[in-house]
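Thread title: Can someone regenerate the structure for this chain?

I was given the following input by a collaborator and told the matching structure tokens would be attached. They weren't. Posting the sequence so someone can regenerate them.
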Amino acid sequence: MQTLKYLSGYSPDIQRQVQQLLEGGKLADVLLRRHPTVHEIRSDKALYDYTQGIKNQFLRQSSPLSKVIFDDKISMSHHALGLHSYVSRVQGNKIKAKNEIRISSRLKRVPESLLRMVVVHELAHLKEKDHNKAFYKLCTYMEPDYHQFEFDLRLLLTCIDANQSPYSNLTNLFD
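Best answer:
Regenerated them for you:
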């Protein structure tokens, strides 16, 4: 029996169901039915435009983004698939702030909904620094299916961990 480390916060009933699907080799099929195709966003420019589009739709008044990139250095060994950084520095008598979002380059070939969930998560940090009730309310405002997509991403990570990825190119997500 495999440890379901990405689902440790879920109920024993959910974990049992996932374990049965995993042992029966059906978990990847469930993910493929929910998310049959991967997105076409491959460049940092395309990721920036994609992220900026979501930001303009939901967070128009928030601080601007100075950079959005795919980052080869982010992996599950860092316990993250995306990072938001906020850097302030003094220039003369003004304080300049830069917001950067880095998304694991391993998410270049996942379904668009799962990439969107990570982007929405990082964008929510523009307004809410902590993972609190207001943070998750903002996430679900920007993506009503946020919690389902987060669960599905956890299922995908579980599949990859068990060498059963539905998307054959994701075997190195854990590097």
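The radius of gyration is 17 Å.
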